[in-house]
Structures are given as C-alpha cells and as structure tokens.
Amino acid sequence: MKRKLLSLFLLPAAMLNLLSGCASSEKTAEEAEEEITAQTLTVSDPDYYTRFKDDGLSINVYNWGEYISTGADEGTLDVNSEFEKLTGIKVNYTNYATNEELYAKLKGGGATYDVIIPSDYMISKMIKEDMIQELDFENIPNFGYIMDNFRNMEYDPENAYSVPYTWGTVGIIYDETMVDMDEEDIDWDLLWDETYADQILMFDNPRDAFAISELLLGYSLNTENPEELADAAEKLKEQKRIVQAYVMDEIFDKMGAGDALIAPYYAGDALTIMEENDSLNFVVPKSGTNLFVDAMCIPVGAKQKEAAEMYINFMCEPDIAFANIDYICYSTPHSAAFEMLDEEVRNDPISYPDEELIAERTTVFVNLSDEANKRMQDLWTEMKSAEDETTNKWLMPAFLVLCLATVVFVLIRRHIKNKKDIF
Amino acid sequence: MKQLKVLSLPYLVWMVIFIVVPLLMVAFFAFTTEDGSFTIENISDVGQYANIFVRSIWLALIATVICLLLAYPLAFILSRMEKHKQGTMLLLVMLPMWMNFLLRTYAWMTLLGNNGIINNLLGMIGIGPLKLINTSGAVVLGMVYNYLPFMILPLYSVMQKIDKSVLEAASDLGCSFRNTLFRVIVPLSLPGITSGITMVFVPAISTFIISRMLGGGSNLLIGDLIEMQFLGNSYNPHLGAAISLVLMAIILVIMTVMNQFSPDDQVLI
Q1: A301 and A162: one domain?
Q2: Coil, strand, or helix at residue A168?
Q3: Is residue A67 part of a domain?
Q4: Is B31 within a domain?
Q5: Where are the alpha helices (DSSP H) in chain B?
Q6: For B192, which of A36, A88, A123, B155 could close a Cys bridge (C-beta 3.0–4.6 Å)?
C-alpha cells in the first residue's frame, strides 16, 4: 500500500550489496533473462486503443510510489511508455505515499487527476463523498479478467466505481532465528511480548495499528464503538514501552539490516524484505488479519474520462497486469496474470494464501464514520504524544523556569541600558 | 530614489502573492469551520497538544544552544585565519549542505541503529549496544547536524568584520582574554548571534522529518502534528492551520525577546 520512499531506503542497501559482492546478483541476472523472453506486449484489441491516436490527449495518473512496472529492471515493460506508444495519449504520472495524502490532494482541489488507485476504505469514503465517478464498463472489456471473488467487494458493493489492481494481507514479519516460536502459534500478541522489548516495530498510521489492537482484543476491524476504540488505544499505549519505533517504509531498511526482530507489514512488501534478509519469515496470525485491495478509480472532475477508462483497461491487459504484478510483488486479482506467474509464486502461501484462510481469517476495511475516524485519530495522537513519566516531571518546570529566567534577564538588561542612556 | 523603488517591485509582488496571501489564508482557515462560519474552537483545541509544544520548544532550544556553543569558537577561529585558508574552511562547512537533507538524516539512521556502525564499534571495545536511535537525543543530534551551518555562517560573516586592531587595542589596554571575549567580541558579534539563533531555532521547532526518522515516531513534534492534519489520517486543515498559527505566535514572541539582545545602536560601536 505504501512504497514511496522505498527506492530511497533501498539505495544504501543496494550499494552495500555491490560492495560485498552479494551472491544473489547471479540469480537476478538469470531471472532477468527469463523475463526478457516472457515480457513482450500483445493487446487484445488494437483498434480500441488507437481511437484517440491523433487527438493529442493527455491524462493525469496518480498512483502509489513504486507501484507500476517502469522498465527499470532489464527486460521488463515500461507500462506508461507502452501505453503512450500504443494510444498516442500522453501519461502524466505522479506518486503519493498514503491514502490520506491522495484524499487531501483531491479535496484541496487545485489538481485534476484522471486515474487514481486508492485502497478499499478510502474508495468507500470517496464514494460517500461523491469524489469518484461511476465507470463505463463498456469501455473496460478487460474487467472480465478480474476474479469473481474480487468483484462487488464490500467497499463498492455494486462494483460501479472501481477496478481492482492489487490485493494483499497484513501479517507479521519476524526473524526466525531469534523468535523461538512455531509458525502456527504466532498471533498478534507477539507484538506485545516483553521478551522482545525494543525489537518490535509498529505501523505509523492509526488505521493499521488500531486494526492489530482490535484483532488482539477480538473486536471487529471496522468497529465504531467508542469503548472498543478506547480499549484498543489503551492496548497500544501498553505496547508503546516495548516498541522500538513507529515506522512505515523504514521497515524495509530496519528489518533488512536486522535492527529489529518483529514488525507487522503488508505481504507484498514482506516478500521484498525477505529477499534481502534470509532469516526473516512472514506469517498471517491465527486470529485473523486485514485484507486490503487497491483499485483503480476515476475522480469526479476528470478531464478525459474515456481516455482514463482506456488506461484502466490497458492496465488489465494480461501482459501489462503480469508485468506490473511481477514488478511490485503484491498479489493480483487478475486471472490471466495469475496464470502467467511462476508455479512457485502461485503456490506461495504468502502471496496467495488458500481461499479458506481468506474467507475465515481476513476482513476488508470499510470506511468509518467521521466521528469514529476523529475519535481514532485523537486517541492515536494522544497515545503517540504520551511521554514516560520520568521525562514529563522535569520537562515542564524546566521550561517554565527557563522562560522566567529569560524574561527577568531581558528586563534587567533593559533597566541597565536605560540607566546608561540617562548618563 | 524612485527608480530604486521600481526595482523592488518584483519582490513586492512575489511577497504579496506567496507570503502575505497564504498567511491570511492560514488565519482564515484557523478561525473557520468546514462550512466557512467563524469559530475559535480550532484554536482552543490546540490546547490539548500543549505537551507536544513544550517538547518541540525544549528540543529546538537545546539544539540551538548546542549549535551556538559549537559554532561560536569555530566561527571566531575561522575569521582569524589567513584569507586563503578561510575559503577552504568555509567550503568544508558548506559541504554537507550540498547533499540532500533527507539523505543526510537517513545516514544518521544507519549510523545510530542497533546494528549500526557506532554500536558495532562500541561492541568491539566491549560496550553493549546502546539505545541511540529513537530517542529525543537522536532528534536533537539530527537538528544540530542539519542546522549547524546556519549558525556558523552568520556568526562568521559578523566576526570577519571585527577589525584585528580592535582586539589589539583591547590587549594593549591590558584587557585579559576573558574580558576581551565578553566585552569586545561578544557585543560586536551580537547581530550574528541573534540571526544565527533565529535561523536554527525556527526550522528546528517546525521540523517533522527529523523527528520521524530519528525519533522513531514516538517523539512527536509540532511539525508532525501539523503534517498529520494535512496529510495524515485526520484530514483537518482547520485544526492544522490553528496549530500553525499558534506556532507562529510562539516564534514571534521568542523572536521579539531575542531582538531585545541586539542593540539598535549597533552602528555607534
């Protein structure tokens, strides 16, 4: 869901790899060769895509960072330039880091976008606030590739507004060599385990953090009950003492370097981290988790709706969907792209847990009421800004004394100066 | 004279469009609700974050004092060096600023980490891993590191103007080194001290990325709080604007106090 700073964080790691002559480089070269043969583009209906060829159109696409195949790795497709080549429509591609940033950009006006890729709960919020518009599925024939169980999701029950792009689960990444537990026994309470004090990382956004706390307490992920939210906040406060840091993308670096042992994160990103550090493992806790879906939408006020639908359709071309999913490592809701994946990946329980697990253990976020959102945010800020009592004791008085001293000093100084002036 | 005024017109237009108007907008947002009616609720809501304000001011203050203590002797030594050496030394002071701000702060993350270079070195001489990162100390370190040049440069440019003969006169008249420092050098460099303090304190108090990267997200500062209101889960630009307004008021008060130290009869000395 969130990968904007990824390239920045991985940069030093990549340089270290170069220095130490990491063994994995041979393997990636091999993989790249495979990809060259695999990734060439054919589209189902070339006529459809060339409709606007000479109109000089351009569309604004607003997506998560590192969330599309850019052709940066040898042999992979540069999806946006392929689209431009095929359709003659120019793509202005920009990135955001959180759903909230996207929401703020749209709400603040000032910029119009034609295609955006928010997550589930943000989609339902945007539907409610009339910020995204219904799609014309006549123009998106490739929607047929989307798997049945990813249609009519709870956030968009009629499936009128969105076309799923990726999905994944939230789970715990942990160091197998240091955490002495069976994979099946691991539950969210591992994040509260005193044994690993100061080795635990936690989500730095309230929705995901509260979800974990709520799962642990046996509440619904989408609870709006004030008492349950307060309980969850209490639980998070309890955890604060043993949390090393509240982070998002920094997890890549901290877990990769072995700075922390346990962290909750998104499955797709977990795979990326595990490539770097062999001793890590990822598990979906037994008491359940959140399943997220990121889907393509068109905001109200989009200037080129038809071109935007063409882009969405293009993203659902099997070759393109495969190139993207292969690059970003998240799970795909696209049946043809799924078939094109390596057998190994398709059977990987991290990317594609079996349907039973999905049905029984996962919940999708829906949008909370404004009131519940505000309550959650307030509790979160309170939790984050609460200090250990030891520091609190001297901080405030010291500050006051300092203020007083400054004022007295200034007054005395003025007094002396005035006296001097008289003489 | 008239022609000179015309020359300042571009900046005046720039200032009105990009400084005055946004400031008015901040004030407008701070005093209105979502539907545009007047309220002071946003401002009174800021009260609940008092401890975050205190912490921000406190940390920024410590960072400013450390910067001053580090930069003052350095700036003095710099200004007394031979001319050609001064250029090289200044270049060294500026060098870190050529690198991206984020990258510099990020480098500290790998240095201070539990498995970082510093802890590894300490481990070699038998000192167990210390908790260096994710502390308020680390935040202060980040502030000092990033804003130190902003303290050195104004101090240096003021001290450079202190004539050597003034110092010689002081010692000719039997002034001890200590007295020369406090009665000659410090008063003469006061404008540099005040502008240095301003240039370090203001960005330090409103920073958010340093506290996030080095403070581990559990050392919230005002900057983080404001960022949360605009880009965070609680999208509330009105509260965000109110917090910004209070922050501006605090900075204004502190700056007014600061200005008391800088004598306006500077020219006479």
Answers
A1: yes
A2: strand
A3: yes
A4: yes
A5: 2-7, 9-15, 21-30, 41-46, 50-79, 83-94, 101-112, 117-124, 136-159, 164-172, 177-180, 186-206, 209-214, 222-231, 237-259
A6: B155
Kindly report the number of other CB atoms within 10 A of residue B139's CB atom.
28
- The answer to whether the Cβ–Cβ distance between A101 and B115 falls below 8 Å is no
Domain count, chain B: 1
Q: How far apart are CA B47 and CA A112, in angstroms?
A: 36
pLDDT tens-digit readout, B41-86:
888 888 888 888 888 988 999 999 999 999 999 999 999 999 889 9
> Is the same domain home to A51 and A161?
yes
Same structural domain, A161 and A174: no
- The CATH number assigned to the domain holding B62 equals 1.10.3720.10
Q: How many H helices and E strands in chain A?
A: 17, 12
Local confidence band at A404 (pLDDT 50, 70, 90 cut-offs) = confident
Q: Which residues pair with A116 in a beta bridge?
A: A62, A297
Q: Which pTM does this prediction carry?
A: 0.80
Domain of residue B155 covers 11-265
Give one DSSP letter per residue of A333-384, joined into a string: -BHHHHHHS-HHHHT-TTTS--HHHHHHHEEE--PPPHHHHHHHHHHHHHHH
In a domain, A415, yes or no: no
Average pLDDT for A62-67: 89
Bridge pairing between strands A243-247 and A200-203: parallel
What is residue A192's three-state secondary structure? helix
Note whether A205 and A278 are same-domain residues: yes
Q: Count the domains in chain A.
A: 3
Contacts of B212 in chain A (CB under 8 A): 204
In A, which residues are within 8 Å of B234 by CB distance? Answer: 373-374, 377-378, 381
Predicted confidence (pLDDT) per residue in A252-289, tens digit: 888 988 889 999 999 988 988 898 888 999 999 988 89
Kindly state whether residues A155 and A261 are assigned to the same domain.
no
Flag whether A409 is in a domain: no
Q: Are A406 and B106 inside 8 Å of each other by CB?
A: no
B63 Cα to chain A: minimum distance (Å): 14
- A41 has a pLDDT exceeding 80: no
Please indicate, yes or no, whether residues A269 and A257 belong to a single structural domain of this protein: yes
d(CA A315, CA A299): 17
Match 């060339």 to its residue by tokens: A50
**Residue A308 within any structural domain of the chain:** yes
Question: Residue A20 is part of which domain span?
Answer: 1-37
C-alpha A67, offset from chain centre: 10
In the beta sheet, which residues pair with residue A58? Answer: A90
CA distances from B235 to A106, A315, B28, B170 (A): 12, 30, 17, 60
Nearest to B196 by CA among B160, B264, B147, B161: B147
- B2 domain-assigned: no
A133 and A256 housed in the same domain = no
From B109, B217, B260, residue closest to A413, measured CB to CB: B260
